[in-house]
Sequence to fold (127 residues):
Amino acid sequence: MDKDALKLRTRRFALAVIQLVEGMPKSMSSTVIGRQVMRAGTAVGANYRAACRARSRAEFIAKLGIVEEEADECIYWFELMEEANLLPQTSIAPLKSEANELLSIIIATIRSTRSTANPKSEIRNPK
Fold:
């Protein structure tokens, strides 16, 4: 998947998260969890865009690490929403699945970027 396609996919994910949160019941727990999942869900795309503008391979990998954390956090909040019965599982499952797929893509990208790094550019202890 090229970077433009992934930018679009993460934006669509953010919009779907916003729609999910807007449809949550009005309660204290829904408000708290909704804010958390909205923050994490929209951060996936925002941080991926930032990663695409990285000035170095190290910065790219570091920013993708943030994307990884945010996607994983989304999964946590989706699991909590399911367990708390805040929404029907049928509403949460597609987003949870997409978050897992995005997480897998980001992890694979981090690994492949690390494996193609120039070993001479890494700092090493000569001992």
In short: DSSP finds four helices and no strands in the chain. The first helix runs from residue 3 to 22. The two ends are 40 Å apart (CA to CA).
